[in-house]
């Protein structure tokens, strides 16, 4: 079943979201004031509208009320984000995702009832800093305030040993939930805990954020 998603604002973030959703079973409606940018995105979406996404009459007329999810994809104007969020709430939009640029704006949007508030530049900076601190870290996803998922290349001293033998839960507080193949990029969640690890394995683990950020588990 196809879903309809609204993207309000077509900056770099908004355009990236649209293009990444192209292969998914979704219909996308976009609104942005910039005619040139809107025309460039037309081939990716169901409807690309040139206009002010804070205009309630406009967003109703183009079908935003029928969207399951609306992404307010620009943080350049707090006033615009506030108005757009309130308009979406009044239209009964189920999921409202808002991009913000700082912690204070995040608090405001949460108080207004946004379903999810994101700071992509901040998240990207955190992710990069973690990877730079240890090149074995491939990805870190924060789920909650104190829980994260990490993808990492096992240190050489683990090669030839099994997950069961390493006992990472007791040693580092990590629960291995999958192994990704470096060759296929596919994650196998049916763990063979007795199988020896090698250089083609990428471990996927969940654990306490503090334990994960210690990085002791990737030291050779």
From TrEMBL:
InterPro entries: NAD(P)-bd_dom_sf, RCK_C, RCK_C_sf, RCK_N, Trk_Ktr_HKT_K-transport. Residues 135-220 form the RCK C-terminal domain. It comes from the Bacteria. Pfam families: TrkA_C, TrkA_N. Residues 2-119 form the RCK N-terminal domain. GO terms for molecular function: monoatomic cation transmembrane transporter activity. GO terms for biological process: potassium ion transport. This is Trk system potassium uptake protein TrkA. It comes from Dolosigranulum pigrum ATCC 51524.
């Amino acid at each position: 079943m196809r879903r309809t998603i609204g993207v309000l604002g077509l900056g770099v973030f908004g355009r990236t979201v649209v293009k990444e959703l192209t292969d998914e079973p979704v219909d996308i409606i976009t609104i942005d004031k910039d005619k040139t940018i809107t025309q460039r995105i037309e081939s990716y979406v169901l409807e690309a509208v040139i206009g002010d996404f804070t205009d309630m009459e406009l967003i109703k007329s183009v079908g935003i009320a029928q969207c399951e999810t609306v992404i307010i994809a620009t943080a350049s104007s707090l006033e615009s984000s506030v108005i757009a969020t309130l308009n979406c709430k009044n239209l009964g939009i189920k999921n409202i995702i808002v991009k913000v640029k700082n912690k204070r704006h995040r608090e405001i949007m949460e108080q207004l009832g946004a379903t999810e508030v994101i700071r992509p530049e901040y998240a990207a900076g955190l992710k990069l800093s973690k990877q730079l601190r240890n090149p074995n870290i491939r990805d870190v996803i924060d789920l909650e305030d104190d829980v994260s998922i990490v993808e990492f290349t096992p240190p050489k001293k683990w090669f030839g040993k099994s997950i069961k033998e390493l006992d990472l839960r007791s040693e580092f507080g990590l629960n291995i939930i999958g192994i990704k193949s470096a060759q296929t990029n596919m994650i196998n969640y049916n763990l063979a805990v007795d199988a020896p690890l090698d250089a083609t394995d990428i471990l996927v683990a969940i654990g306490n954020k503090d334990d994960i950020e210690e990085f002791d588990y990737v030291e050779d």
